[in-house]
Design brief:
CATH class of the largest domain in chain B: Mainly Alpha
Number of domains of chain A: 2
Largest sheet of chain A: 2 strands, antiparallel
Helix content of chain B: over 70%
CATH topology of the largest domain in chain B: Cytochrome Bc1 Complex, Chain C
Shape of chain A: globular
CATH class of the largest domain in chain A: Mainly Alpha
Number of helices of chain A: 7
Order of helices and strands of chain A: HHHEEHHEEHH
Radius of gyration of chain B: 23 Å
CATH architecture of the largest domain in chain A: Orthogonal Bundle
Number of strands of chain B: 0
Number of helices of chain B: 15
CATH topology of the largest domain in chain A: Cytochrome Bc1 Complex, Chain D, domain 2
Distance between the termini of chain B: 67 Å
CATH superfamily of the largest domain in chain B: Cytochrome Bc1 Complex, Chain C
Order of helices and strands of chain B: HHHHHHHHHHHHHHH
Radius of gyration of chain A: 23 Å
Oligomer: heterodimer
Distance between the termini of chain A: 45 Å
Number of strands of chain A: 4
Number of domains of chain B: 2
Strand order of the largest sheet of chain A: 1-2
Largest sheet of chain B: none
Helix content of chain A: 40-55%
């Protein structure tokens, strides 16, 4: 199966020659995009680090459990160690705990942010048109406000946000995290990685879906030829 | 054991004998095209839909709808796959339904003796729309939630029997009991539609012209239907695995918020070809009458069409049907756009043409053709 998937991937690569081999930032693109997309687990793990260090301070991701992280390539021991480092109100987190919610209830979150509750991030990449790109554009879209635009109090100018005024302060800076794989943590790289991670968080079954799908489509194509040939053969016998 | 030549089981269960006769009776016309098996495909797809729906209903909790679907997608073994089957299955069924409706208009198969077949096709279509909409509402995403809230508010704003029926159907204002109630309707109607399918099948058999030397269902049409099913399944697989959320408003993948109206409250795509005229009218009554009039016109089609029975549809008819299809597509496209002056004018023009086709063009051209 893997071989088939690799073959399909090789064909896709041949069909669309890529301008840059390794650079995923110029122009921004993600391995999960497109019909044959799949997840780049190294990017997902880097993205999780950004999520855990930066986003999780204010945002919840209630649909995710720590055990789900095996989907981004962590071993059970790694996840257990990771969860043990998270302090919940009931004690250290376990594999079956949901991701820690930074606020006990929405009212507390609203009180902390002047009414603007940080949205839950579990499905945010799916719940926005072109979600992966949107998250990247949002995180890299902070800019000085035009002189003629009066900003609301406690808001920031962001080119990607609908209405251009967002209550979230610019969350990412260069070298805010240190990546284990040695990738330079520019803020654009962090944004790209966390966009990849949130895409996985919203659609964790993309890889499985593509893998089963390729098998199903090949089988059904074959069966379609046999079925139509059989039909023709049977009908030929009528006079 | 048995003194007769019949198999043991057939004596004790005579219905098997009639099923065998049904399979092998050489009464069917020769060489029906693949497209003639669309109603069978719809029936098969509905059975598949019932099975995937059954699995989903084991885990779905209408009191905590959005989170229970997240649970199905993320924590139930292959729950995401069953969910995708159910969701994309709906898209496929409506694709087949609209193909069937177009084919009936194109071939004029609604004419005598096909009137009952046509009316049952319409009943099936409307019931499927209702079931589909209920399923869409059960997802309880940001858009579904507001769509339901708007539907309930419209039901309350109507007076008389339409409003009464609407309010009864939704069971009162949007609240804790609404989704559990609609979940029951979704499931019960999905089973009830099997009855319409059986009636439809019987009527189709009745409307077929008698044939002198026909062929049997098995192996001739079973092999054809099998091939059609495989092709249907192939398209289905491509959509399920490679474009799982085709035609869906992405905003609906987020949780509902009773305090935040999403930037676009869109109905599911399969509702648009019928509901688009409703966008011309701002009042609930206007939308209600527009949609009711469209259904009534479709139902009256066998009597609006004045063509001579048995005459194959001519060039003029085919051209007008293509124009009508284009009109409906344009209506859908413009109904999806945010409200604007030019959009409003175009919607009104396309709606007017739709009614003009059925009330004026169709009776006149068919009467001319019949002469």
């Amino acid at each position: 199966m893997r071989r088939l998937l690799l073959a399909a991937f090789a064909i896709a690569c041949l069909a669309a020659p890529r301008a840059q081999a390794e650079d995923t930032l110029n122009p921004p693109h993600w391995q999960s995009e497109g019909v044959f997309g799949s997840y780049d687990k190294a990017a997902l793990q880097r993205g999780f680090l950004v999520y855990q260090t930066v986003c999780a301070a204010c945002h919840s991701a209630n649909a995710l459990h720590y055990r789900d992280l095996d989907g981004i390539g962590f071993s059970t021991e790694q996840i257990a160690a990771l969860a043990a480092g998270v302090k919940l109100s009931t004690g250290p987190a376990t594999l079956d705990d949901r991701f820690k919610n930074p606020y006990p209830d929405p009212a507390a979150a609203a009180a902390a942010f002047g009414g603007a509750i940080p949205p839950d991030l579990s499905s945010i990449a799916a719940a926005r048109p072109a979600g992966t790109r949107y998250i990247f554009n949002l995180l890299t879209g902070y800019a000085p406000a035009p002189a003629d635009l009066p900003l609301l109090p406690g808001h920031y100018y962001n080119t990607a946000f609908p209405g251009q005024q967002i209550a979230m302060p610019p969350p990412l800076k260069d070298n805010q995290v240190t990546y284990a794989d040695g990738v330079t943590a520019t803020s654009a790289q962090e944004a790209s990685d966390v966009a990849a991670f949130l895409t996985w968080a919203a659609t964790p079954n993309l890889d499985a879906s593509r893998e089963i799908g390729l098998r199903a489509v090949l089988f059904l194509t074959f069966l379609a030829f046999i079925a139509t040939a059989t039909k023709r053969k049977i009908w030929r016998e009528t006079v | 054991m048995s003194s007769l030549s019949k198999p043991w089981l057939h004596i004790r269960l005579p219905v098997l004998e009639s099923f065998r006769a049904y399979l092998h009776a050489p009464v069917l016309p020769r060489e029906k095209p693949y497209l003639a098996s669309v109603p069978v495909l719809i029936a098969g797809a509905l059975v598949f839909q019932l099975l995937s729906g059954l699995v989903l209903s084991l885990f779905y909790n209408p009191a905590d709808a959005f989170n229970s679907i997240q649970f199905i997608d993320r924590s139930v073994n292959y729950g995401w796959l069953i969910h995708a089957f159910h969701e994309t299955g709906t898209t496929m069924i409506f694709g087949a339904v609209y193909l069937g409706l177009f084919r009936a208009l194109w071939l004029r198969s609604y004419n005598a003796p096909g009137e009952i077949v046509w009316l049952l096709t319409l009943a099936k279509f409307l019931l499927l729309l209702l079931i589909g909409y209920l399923g869409y509402v059960l997802a309880d995403g940001a858009v579904s939630y507001w769509s339901l809230a708007n539907a309930i508010a419209s039901a309350f704003s109507l007076s008389g029997p339409p409003g009464g029926i609407g309010v009864w159907f939704f069971g009162g204002p949007d609240g804790a009991g609404t989704l559990p109630r609609l979940a029951v309707f979704h499931a019960v109607l999905a089973v009830a539609i099997i009855g319409i399918l059986l009636l439809h099948h019987a009527a189709r058999r009745g409307a077929e012209p008698p044939v002198a030397r026909g062929v049997s269902l098995h192996p001739y049409y079973t092999s054809q239907i099998f091939a059609a099913f495989v092709i249907y399944a192939l398209i289905f697989a491509v959509l399920v695995f490679f474009a799982p959320h085709l035609g869906e408003n992405p905003l609906n993948r987020g949780p509902a918020n009773p305090l935040v109206l999403p930037s676009a409250v869109t109905p599911p795509w399969y509702l648009l070809p019928l509901s688009n005229t409703g966008h011309v009218f701002s009042s609930a009554w206007g939308a209600f009458f527009a949609v009711a009039a469209r259904i009534a016109l479709l139902a009256a089609l066998p009597w609006l069409d004045r063509s001579a029975p048995g005459k194959p549809p001519g060039f003029r008819h085919k051209f007008l049907i293509l124009l009508l299809a284009l009109d409906v597509v344009l209506l859908c496209v413009w109904a999806m756009q945010p409200p604007s002056l030019i959009g409003g004018i175009l919607l009104a023009v396309f709606t007017a043409y739709y009614f003009f086709h059925f009330i004026v063009l169709l009776p006149i051209t068919t009467a001319l053709e019949a002469r």
